[in-house]
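Hi team,

Filling in the usual template for the complex we talked about on Friday. All components are listed, including any nucleic acid strands or ligand strings, so the model treats them as one assembly.

SUBMITTER: L.P.
PURPOSE: interface mapping
COMPONENTS: four
RESIDUES: 1256
SEQUENCES:
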Amino acid sequence: MNDDKKLKEHLKNVNQFKISDEYDIVKLINDLKDTGFNAKRLAIACEIYKEMVEDKECIKFFGLAGALVPAGMQGIIHDFIEKDFIDVLVTTGANLTHDLAETLGYHHLQGDVKIDTLDDARLLDEEMNRIYDVFLPNNVYEGIEDFMKELKIPDETMPVSDFLKFLGEQLPDNSNSILKICASKDIPIICPAFTDSGLALQLGFNHQKVNLNHFKDMLKMVDLAWDAKKAGVCVIGGGVPKNFIMQSLQFCPNSASYAIQITMDRPEPGGLSGATLQEAISWGKVNQNAKYSTVISDATIALPLILWYLKKSL
Amino acid sequence: MNDDKKLKEHLKNVNQFKISDEYDIVKLINDLKDTGFNAKRLAIACEIYKEMVEDKECIKFFGLAGALVPAGMQGIIHDFIEKDFIDVLVTTGANLTHDLAETLGYHHLQGDVKIDTLDDARLLDEEMNRIYDVFLPNNVYEGIEDFMKELKIPDETMPVSDFLKFLGEQLPDNSNSILKICASKDIPIICPAFTDSGLALQLGFNHQKVNLNHFKDMLKMVDLAWDAKKAGVCVIGGGVPKNFIMQSLQFCPNSASYAIQITMDRPEPGGLSGATLQEAISWGKVNQNAKYSTVISDATIALPLILWYLKKSL
Amino acid sequence: MNDDKKLKEHLKNVNQFKISDEYDIVKLINDLKDTGFNAKRLAIACEIYKEMVEDKECIKFFGLAGALVPAGMQGIIHDFIEKDFIDVLVTTGANLTHDLAETLGYHHLQGDVKIDTLDDARLLDEEMNRIYDVFLPNNVYEGIEDFMKELKIPDETMPVSDFLKFLGEQLPDNSNSILKICASKDIPIICPAFTDSGLALQLGFNHQKVNLNHFKDMLKMVDLAWDAKKAGVCVIGGGVPKNFIMQSLQFCPNSASYAIQITMDRPEPGGLSGATLQEAISWGKVNQNAKYSTVISDATIALPLILWYLKKSL
Amino acid sequence: MNDDKKLKEHLKNVNQFKISDEYDIVKLINDLKDTGFNAKRLAIACEIYKEMVEDKECIKFFGLAGALVPAGMQGIIHDFIEKDFIDVLVTTGANLTHDLAETLGYHHLQGDVKIDTLDDARLLDEEMNRIYDVFLPNNVYEGIEDFMKELKIPDETMPVSDFLKFLGEQLPDNSNSILKICASKDIPIICPAFTDSGLALQLGFNHQKVNLNHFKDMLKMVDLAWDAKKAGVCVIGGGVPKNFIMQSLQFCPNSASYAIQITMDRPEPGGLSGATLQEAISWGKVNQNAKYSTVISDATIALPLILWYLKKSL
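RESULT (copied from the run log):
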C-alpha cells in the first residue's frame, strides 16, 4: 500500500455475488476474489497458482504434508504432477507409504461410521489402523514388506530422491500413483524425513546396509533454488516439507516470487507450520514483492477446487 | 455401528477420484463423499441439506453467526431464503446491520491490501472500520442513523422478530437483502442478542421508549420446535444463534432429525460454539438417529459450495 | 515502534529462564515476560491487568463467554469480583444459569471418564446432559424451575441487569456465587442475550408477562463507557459479551486504555470473537496507545494463573 | 467405563476451587484435576508425567517440535533432561540449531514490539530473521558456520545421534544447553529430519562428504522400544518427532503405558500432529489401558507448569 494514498483509494465494493444457473468453477473463483476472509484468500491462491504455471521461468516447489493420500487426494496430486503444475515435490514418508500401498493394489477404507464413539481397542483387535475417519488394515503393511524385500537396491548410499525414482520405476502403471508419475516425468521427490515412515522401516528391516544419502538431497534443493530464475512455492499443511522448501529458498537469488499455503495451522504458537508467508520475507525466503496467499482450510476441500480451477482456466 | 459386525463390513475403498473435463459441483460432492476428513464431512453436509429440503415435513432452522454479509455472502444467504432452504433464520444483530447497510445502497469495501502491515491507527484517522480484510466507512453508520430516525415504530413492545419484519417491509426492493426477502416471504428472523448491534443502538438512541420483546421470540421459537413434525438445523459459526436454536430444539418432540454445522470452532475448550453435534444428543437437541455432519471450514468457502450443490441437484 | 530506530534497538535477549526451588507465580510471570509466543502474551496480560487495577480512574469491563462455571471456574470469577478486579460484568445467560444451579446447591459433575467413546444416546437415557467432559443432570433444571416459579418479580419491564441484581439478592449466601457477590457489591451484570438461556426459559414459562428491558442495559453500557475517564477491558472467549463491550467502548471518549483477551478463536475467519485487539483500534474501541494483549489459551488454564498473579502481586 | 454402571456412579462434583493465600503449583494442579476442559487435561498430564518418572521400568520418550528454544524454553527443556525426566529426546533440527546458537553465546531477541504492524521487508534490510515475535540476527548463522567449519568429524557415516553426541561434547559448559546436557548424561538425541535445519546446511556446506546415517537411528529407536519393559511418551507439538516416536512404539511389546501430548493441533484435518492418543491405540502405539492426556495449549505455557509441578511434587 502506497503511504501517500488513502486506504479507500485502494478499495472497491465487496462483491455480493450470486450463483447463476450457468455457473462454473472459474466464475466461482472470480466471484470469491472480491469478497473477504478465506474465500478471498482461496481465490487469490488460485490466481497465483495459475500465474505461476504460466510463468515459464518459474520453478514450482510443492510441499505436501498431512495424510492426503488416505483421504482420497492421490489422484488429485497425481494430476497436479501430470499437468506440469509441480516441478519439485517435497513430501513426507507417510504419503509415499500410502501412495505405494494404493499403487500396489491395496486400499484405504472408509464408510458410514461414527468416529465419535468408535472404540480403538476394538480396532486393534480387528487389525484396522485408524487415520481419523479412514482405515488401513494391517495386512497392507505385509504387502508393502513383501514388495520391499524383493527390491534390488542399486546403490545403498544413493540419495533418497534417487531411491524414490528407482522405486517409482519398479511400480506397475497406475493412473493415480505419485511415485510412478514422478518417476516417468523425472520430477524429483524430496523426502527429508524419509526414515519417519513405514516405507523406510520396511526398507531398513530388509536391507540392513542401506544408508541413503539425505545430505545430497539437501544440497540438491539448495542448487535447485540457487539456479531458479524465478521460484514459486505451494505448501500443503506445513511440517518438514514447508520448512525444507523454505530453507532452500533462502539460497534462491530472488527468493520466491509466488507463495501459497493451505493449512489449518496458525501463527500464534510460533511454529514454522503456521508461520505467515509475510514472516518468510524477513528470512529472504519469500520476496518482498511476491504474490502470496495463505488459505486457512482443510486441504481436502481446497486442493480439488484449485486443481479444478487450473484445469478449466489454463 | 452394529456391534456384532466387524468394522470392515461397514467399509469400502476410499475414492481416489479425478476431476474430469466435464466436471460439475454435483460430481465433486459425490466424489468427496467417499473420501475422508473435512472433504467427506462437507459432502455429507450437502447430502443432508438436500434431504432436509426434500423432506416436506421438516422445519429448517438456520443459525447464522459471523460477519458473513461483510464477506460478500449476502446474496448467497438471500438465495437460501428465496429457494425455501430456510424456514426460520436466527442470526446476530451485526449481520442484520450489515444487511441493512447494503440494502440502503452502502457498501462494504475490499481490495488489494496487505492486512499484515495495516496500521489501524491510520484507519481510525481515515474513518474506516476494519473487519479482518473488509472495511466499512463510518459514514455508513450515519446513513443507518438517518434511516432509523425516520422509522415510525408501530408498537414499542412488539417482539423483535415482528420489528425485523416491519423493518424489512420499509426497505426498497433489493435482490440481495436478507431483511427484505424474509419480510416478503414471511420467514421469521429471530435475533436473541439484538441490542448487541449498531442497528439496535441507532434504534435505541432515536426511539428511547422502545422495549422490543425478546421473551415472546424465545417462546415463539419453543412453539415452532414443539409443533415441528420434524426439525432440521444448519448452523454457521456457533454463537448465540446456535445455542438459541439448540435450546429450542429440546422442546421438539423428536429433536432434530438433521443437523449441520459449518464452523472453525472446536470442542476442546468446552464452549457451545465448538461443541459436537454428538454432544447435543445427550441434551435431546439432536435425535440419536439424526443424520448430522460438522464441517471444520470457513463458511465463506463452504456456504457457496452448498448452495451451488443444492441448486444443481434439487 | 519508532520508525527512525532500528528494530534491534528495541530488543533484548530472550530470557532462557529456570524454575528455581523458591519459585512463585510472580517470578513465573516475570520470567515469561521476556520470552515469546503465548507465554509472553500471558505475562503481558497479567501485567496489564495489574496496572488496570492500580489505575483508580479505570472502569474495568469484563466479558465472560464459554462454559466457565461448569468447568470449575465459578470461585475464580467470584474472587475477581470480590477483589474489585471487575466493575462491570457482561456475560452469557448460560453462565448465569450454571451459577444459579451451583448457588442453589446443585452440582456439575465430572470424573474419570473417557469422552472419546462416550455414547451420548446413553447419556440421554440417563438424563445426563454433557458439556464436553462435564455433566449436568436434568433434575438440576427442575430445581431451577421450582426456584424461578416462586420468584415475585417486582417489575415485569425492569432492565435485565436490575432483574439479575434482584435475583442475586434472593439467593442464599454462597462463597462462590457470581450472582450473589455482584448483587452484594452492586456490580452490574449485563446479559445482552439473556433469553438465550435455561434461566430465561424458566422465567418466561412461569412469568408469561415479563418483558425485561434489554435496551436500557444497552444505553446504560453506553453511558458507563461515555462517563469513564479511563476504560479497560478483559474478554474471556469472545461472543456477545466481547462485541457488546466493544460496541459500548466506541462511545468512551478515550476508548479503552487497557485491553486483554483470552481466547482460542483466531482472526482469519473474520468473526468478532477472534478479531485482534489491533483491529479494534480502527473502530475507536481500543485506543491506539492502549496496552493490550491477546492470549491464545483455554481460559480454564489462563484465568486461574492471572488471578493467582494478581492476588500475589497487588 | 464399565457398561453395567450408570455414568453418574463414575462422577463426582466439579471442584469450584479457590486460590488461597498459601497456594502453590501442586495445589493448583490438584485443584484443576477435578474441573473440566483443558485445565483438567493439564492436571492429568502432570499426574501422568509424575507417575511415569516414578515408574523405574518406564523408558520416557520425549518428542519436541516447534520453536521452543527461541521462545525461551531452552532452560526448561535442559532441566527436564537434567532431572532424568527424559530418556530419549526426539526433536527437530531447528531446535538443535537454536540450542547451538545460544550455547555458543548468541541470543534470540525479543522486546516491546507490535508484531501486527511490523514490516518484514524492513527486517530483511536489517538482517533480522523473525520467528513470530522473536528475532534472530543473520550473524548468528555466521557464528554457527565458523564453528561447524572447524569441526573434525570423526566418521562421515556415523548415525545422526552419534554425531549429535559428538557435537555436544565439543560445546562449552552451559547451564541451559540441550546438546551439552544430553552428551554429558548420554541421553540420545534422535533427529529424523536432521537435514531440514540450518545446522545440517552448515555441516553439509563445509563437510561435503558427510552421509550421516539416518537408518541406524531408525532401527535404534525400534530397538529401544522393543526392549522397553514399559514405555511412556510426552509429545510437544506433533510433527516428525511425534510420528517417529509413535512408529517406534508399535514395536514395543506393550505399547506405551503413559502418553501425553501438548499441542495446538486438532484431529479434524486428519494429520498425525493433531491425531488423538485414542487413535494411537488402534495402531498399537499406545496401550488400550494406558493413562493418557492431550492438552490443547501453547507449550510455552504448559511446559513450565509441568516442570514446576514435577520439581515440587517428586
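MY TAKE: Chain C touches chain D through 75 residues (CB under 8 Å). The first strand of chain C starts at residue 11 and ends at 13.

Thanks, L.
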